[in-house]
């Protein structure tokens, strides 16, 4: 690296290609470079800040379509269902999960039909409809969205919930839909998060709605900065340093597994390893620039809940073992040619949907949401009552966020109320929190 011209070194600005490294790529950390996949020569490009780079029409189309779909969907599709929350939170959850799932198919349709992203899934697969916790390495800030390409084939998108940063719930459109979907928002302060997480998980156990909860134990995506922090943690605790993953934080995972077990709402844990063999869009800005992944590979390992360790310390050690396996698996993945987790490239458990059915779902989703967005604009332009309803719903979404803190919290409060009224519940509201008696 010392003989590399300065203009080719990693720095903010426009990426550069340097073919001289084509025979030494195995020594270069994966977060620093991306394979351009050009034939004839193996070029590498430093992944850098997008400062000064031109916005892509393709990227804008992707981001704007997703935003408008979530925004108008929250107003016109989810808005009319909100009053049902006050009368029957369980039925409200059943209906809204299916409405939100229709939007979750839109990114899959855009990625695969419009931008030609190839998805490869290997390993154990899923048992359709089972209740599980999904743990995955956090290679980019967009892994959670790319995972929908896998879940559309091997599971049901309506079952998925995500643990994610609380700040995201305030984003208009996306955040509103996440609140309605009852995602679990965390503040990364364990004392506060523990109480909220327990209330949310108990609610899912009470209403007996199947749940597949996505969790990133690493807590953040893989970058030079986060890997340096992970290395510091490894040195302090006598652990090996990782190059392709970060050391996992196990407190939240062990608590979730324990709570769902007690609520008889856990069938399995799915350990998913994600990798990008050709190019890696690290952040949302890369999508805006039109830098979509050419391929996304998922390797699934399924573990029966009954086979998991029972004590928190043993489950913590089990998680660390899975991450050590991921490190080896990813190292082998990036060293192989062609890159892949399984040379046969097949899942041992077949998907619950045929590729024909998946193709029809993607085509229907793209058509529906394109038509729905156009119809929403036309309705707002032509019909004054619809504009009043639109403004009223925006007021409700912004107002409840400020007064209550999120629709998922209102849903919990409604559930507690009806449990206390019917006498079926074992909880009462004490200082705003559910306490077991």
Describe the structure in your own words.
This protein is 48% helix and 13% strand. With 437 residues, it is of the alpha/beta class. Among the domains are: 6-46, no CATH class; 120-348, Glycerol-3-phosphate (1)-acyltransferase, CATH 3.40.1130. It has a seven-stranded mixed beta sheet with strand order 3-9-8-4-7-5-6, with helices on both faces. The chain has a two-stranded antiparallel sheet with strand order 1-2. Helix 5 links the parallel strand 5 (160-165) and strand 6 (184-186). It is globular, with a radius of gyration of 23 Å. The N and C termini lie far apart (64 Å). Residues 132-254 form the Phospholipid/glycerol acyltransferase domain.
Query: Largest beta sheet: what is the strand line-up?
Result: 3-9-8-4-7-5-6
Order of helices and strands: EEHHHEEHEHEHEHHEHEHHHHEE
The low-confidence runs, each spanning 5 or more residues with pLDDT under 50, are 1-52, 426-437
User: Could you report the average pLDDT, rounded to the nearest whole number?
Assistant: 84
What is the CATH first-level class name of the domain at 120-348?
Alpha Beta
CATH topology description of the domain at 120-348:
Glycerol-3-phosphate (1)-acyltransferase
Q: How many DSSP-defined strands?
A: 11
Task: State the major sheet.
Answer: 7 strands, mixed
Rg over CA atoms, rounded to whole Å, is: 23 Å
Helical content stands at 40-55%
Instruction: Give the termini separation.
Output: 64 Å
CATH architecture field of the domain at 120-348:
3-Layer(aba) Sandwich
SS-based class? alpha/beta
Count the DSSP helices: 13
In one word, what is the shape? globular
Estimated share of beta-strand residues:
5-15%
GO molecular function: acyltransferase activity
InterPro entries: Acyltransf_C (IPR032098), Plipid/glycerol_acylTrfase (IPR002123)
GO biological process, one term: phosphatidylinositol acyl-chain remodeling
Organism: Esox lucius (Northern pike)
